[in-house]
Design brief:
134 residues; alpha+beta; VC0802-like; 4 helices
């Protein structure tokens, strides 16, 4: 398994990158994905298929959506078995009253935070990086 596992190095190297645009969550109880929607994420749950996609794609397809979000990528390559990084991030964001939905992929972790709090979330993440470097 590749990727960083040392918590101090993980926090020091978060390097958050804010993507442009607004992203939303959609559910499809019948597990269908409309053609041409091209979601960022598809996740299967017993209740239905969850899609995360740009707001404009959801609207164009006439899909009801939830949680208008900003997408932040943590550029550090964290190991899937790393311990404590998400706990530190969640604690810091929760302390500021910022909700966060996390998707951990093979190379990076992806955070979806309220769009109107995105810049504040990035600043908090950068602060964790400075604190982790000490």
């Amino acid at each position: 398994m590749s990727g960083e596992t040392d918590l101090a190095k993980l926090l020091a190297g978060l390097d958050p990158e804010l993507h442009a645009g607004e992203y939303v969550f959609v559910t499809s109880p019948d597990r269908s994905t409309p053609p041409d929607v091209e979601p960022l994420l598809i996740f299967e749950e017993p209740e239905g298929r969850t899609l995360v996609l740009p707001r404009e794609r959801a609207e164009a397809a006439g899909l009801e959506s939830a949680f208008p979000s900003a997408w932040i990528v943590l550029r550090i390559h964290s190991a899937l078995e790393a311990v404590g990084m998400m706990a530190a991030i969640s604690t810091a964001l929760a302390g500021a009253g910022i909700s966060c939905n996390v998707v951990s992929a093979y190379h990076h972790d992806h955070l979806f935070v309220p769009r109107d709090r995105a810049d504040e979330a990035v600043a908090i993440l950068r602060g964790l990086g400075r604190d982790g470097a000490r």
